[in-house]
């Protein structure tokens, strides 16, 4: 059972998300918060599998809450899915840099939101597909923190880890990667567990962003796939 915390300052949105997610047989709404401070307190008390956070809330913002819950030394660490009506680049960047595992617009189809919750709970990050290419391109341009060289991955990772990173950047799930490499799913998970700390990231999504930042893979052009 996936236990979810919902935090949004709009009653209608909180209720709608609770009804949507609570109707799924494998999801339980563990708590509902109306502001950032309440969300942080409830997350620490309830330790949900996923915290669905709005960005603009009274008290702490969703990004500030994500930073507290996703920090390397956070106790407990809680995966965060940001749901917002705003697709402003700075909000997306802020969520990624805070350690959020996913970012979706609230007008995403209900099935997309449910799927995103499951992905985040399983350790698989997600970004709204309408934002992905633009966000990756802008993130690389505006948040480049390290020299852009594909050799960074070769220096840090084993050949198999490097291969898995490239497949992650193609949007493959753990199951997809296991089938492609003809290995057990547990083997893929083990490689990921060793790879993420080497890159200094906390999620699959951030590993993909790292790959684009460091030139391991190229950002698709406007007509690219």
TrEMBL record:
Coiled-coil region: none
Keywords: DNA-binding, Phosphoprotein, Transcription, Transcription regulation
InterPro entries recorded: CheY-like_superfamily (IPR011006), NreC/VraR/RcsB-like_REC (IPR058245), Sig_transdc_resp-reg_C-effctor (IPR016032), Sig_transdc_resp-reg_receiver (IPR001789), Tscrpt_reg_LuxR_C (IPR000792), WalR-like (IPR039420)
Organism of this sequence: Pseudonocardia kunmingensis
Family annotation (Gene3D superfamilies): 3.40.50.2300
Domain HTH luxR-type: 150-215
Residues the record lists as 4-aspartylphosphate modifications: 54
Protein name, entry field: LuxR family two component transcriptional regulator
PANTHER family the record matches: TRANSCRIPTIONAL REGULATORY PROTEIN NARL-RELATED (PTHR43214:SF24), TWO-COMPONENT RESPONSE REGULATOR (PTHR43214)
GO molecular function, one term: DNA binding
Transmembrane helix found in the keyword field: no
Keyword DNA-binding: yes
One Gene Ontology biological process: phosphorelay signal transduction system
All copies of domain Response regulatory, residue ranges: 3-121
């Amino acid at each position: 059972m996936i236990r979810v915390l919902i935090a949004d300052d709009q009653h209608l949105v909180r209720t709608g998300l609770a009804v949507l997610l609570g109707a799924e047989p494998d999801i339980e709404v563990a708590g509902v918060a109306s502001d950032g401070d309440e969300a942080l307190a409830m997350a620490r008390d309830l330790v949900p599998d996923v915290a669905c956070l709005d960005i603009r809330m009274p008290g702490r913002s969703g990004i500030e809450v994500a930073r507290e819950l996703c920090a390397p030394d956070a106790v407990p660490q809680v995966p965060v899915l940001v749901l917002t009506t705003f697709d402003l680049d700075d909000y997306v960047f802020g969520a990624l840099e805070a350690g959020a595992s996913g970012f979706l617009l609230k007008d995403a189809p209900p099935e997309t939101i449910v799927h995103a919750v499951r992905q985040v709970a399983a350790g698989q990050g997600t970004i709204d597909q309408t934002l992905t290419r633009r966000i990756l391109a802008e993130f690389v341009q505006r948040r480049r923190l390290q020299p852009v060289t594909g050799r960074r991955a070769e220096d840090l990772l084993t050949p198999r880890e490097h291969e898995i990173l490239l497949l992650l950047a193609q949007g493959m799930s753990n199951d997809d990667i296991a089938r492609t490499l003809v290995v057990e799913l547990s083997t893929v998970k083990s490689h990921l567990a060793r790879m993420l700390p080497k890159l200094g990231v906390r999620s699959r999504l951030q590993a993909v962003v790292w790959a684009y930042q460091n030139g391991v893979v190229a950002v698709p052009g406007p007509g690219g796939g």
